[in-house]
Amino acid sequence: MSIQVFGLAVSKGVAIGRAVLIASSRMDVAHYFVEEAQLDLEVDRLRRARDEVAGELQALQRDMPSDAPGELNALLDVHLMLLHDETMIAATKQWVRDRHYNAEWALSAQLEVLSRQFDEMEDEYLRERKADIEQVVERLLRALQRSAAGQTAAADRTVQHGFGGEEPLILVANDIAPADMLQFKRSVFAGFVTDVGGKTSHTAIVARSMDIPAVVGAREASRLIRQDDQVVIDGDAGVVIINPPPIVLEEYRFRQRQSELERARLHRLRNTPAVTLDGQRVELQANIEMPRDAQVATQAGAVGVGLFRTEFLFMNRDGHLPSEDEQFECYRSAVQDMQGLPMTIRTVDVGADKPLDRMSIHELRHEHVLNPALGLRAIRWSLSEPDMFLQQLRAILRATAYGKVRILVPMVGHLNEVRQTLAQIALAKRQLNDAGIPFTDAEVGVMVEIPATAIMIPLFAPHFDFLSIGTNDLIQYTLAIDRADEQVAHLYDPWHPAVLQLVAATIDCGRRLGKSVSVCGEMAGDPVFTEVLLAMGLRSFSMHPSRIAEVKQRVLRSDTRHLEQHLQAVLSDEHPEQAAARVFRAAR
Ligand code: PEP
Ligand code: MG
Questions:
Q1: pTM listed for this prediction
Q2: CATH 3.10.100.10 fits 272-587, yes or no
Q3: 482-513 pLDDT tens trace
Q4: Ligand 1 atom 6: the closest Cα is on which residue?
């Protein structure tokens, strides 16, 4: 039976494929395809892992003290029985042979199938046996990781190959932490569906940067979708269709072909300068998450990087932060890849829905962090860890010797933070000078993403060379709506008059003070906002590389003289979205 699930449309397009359900706690399991010729070896790896775990369990039984409770022995018996159960190993092997999944992936896939079956059991005692299955799988996964082949696989996990004739795969999960999402960046998946998350949660942002269809906040999706179901993601409407009837499938295949043609057409604009009909030059820059994305940015026609979110370099490192040299190498390679175009490196913005360790927002909320979005994040965290901050500043400054580097400071809300930050930058420069390490000067910019900052531009701007408006957070903090919470996603409204007025005032004030102003939040990459932002006087946008062509098309068709005439009408309307659609359409 076909079912539809509704969520939030976060990354456009249509994806059709087989569902792969992954538990949030098993996101770090390697996912890759095994070549036909290697299948026997992979099955062997699985068999060896099973024998190893059986040995472990038998040894535990053997060494059990004589006064140990009898239940313990019985439990190990149950684990041994599960280990040899056909529904476990035989079915897992089937995933390897039929789908070419690596052993770890196959095991997790089968665990999902079995978990469902246990969840649906009437008998409470049997239902509770699910925990035993999970423990056995954990042991097997650990044994696989220990095997030499397992280590190669883990190291290779981002280098994923499809194999002939395989259907695309859709990742379905309750939640995916931003760092895990990033790991899937060059992976086998053609689309994503999650139960939780808001439109500008960092998980959604990374999904969008991958330019593959995604729906988040689809509440029940991971419960309703089963392993290997056929799934259609309609990334424009935010709908997921499970096991669609043939006629619906055909319609979506048609739409998929259409959007591929449209993409190819837009791609031709990549070397066209973004100039409006009235001759205004508009800078379209890129947002990136990893150094290797710099190349993607220039290939997409970006004239610079307006936002490098360096925090992704800091995540999932088991408490070991990247050293100054390691960071320097990352920044240097990204800067060199820009071939003279500017690279704006934002100092680390961890916290809120971007924790350092592999924790999803869901876990954060239920763990100990009371209000992560209002807590110790971004510049607040950097200033509280001066050694870490100085290391990063030195690493960024050292990269200035290799190209045009700008430093961007996130989440500044207080003039004290401005003074402390600038003092740390000055100290980092002195330290480099003393050590005789070369660097050149870098412009320093401030992110405007707290309403207090937007209101106080005349006080903040003189300290900085440029301003960058982070609309994702500015909306969250202006409207008091957690950007990562799907339950209030309907209230997260970029068209809210208060948001538009803050953005317009910041652009206007910044320009009058002679500072360049850019928008680097998701608004900049959404063509629905291109005209209103141009009307506000914005001439610098930063967005995911995949969004550049579409926004450029809007820019090329705009006449800012006409747009400006209508700005007040839009800003003062009770329904700015409708007003913008009406007046800007008439101006075209
Ligand atoms: C923003 O808040 O708009 C922004 C660009 O920063 P981030 O999304 O990384 O918080
Ligand atoms: Mg932000």
A1: 0.85
A2: no
A3: 998 889 999 999 999 999 999 999 999 999 99
A4: 470
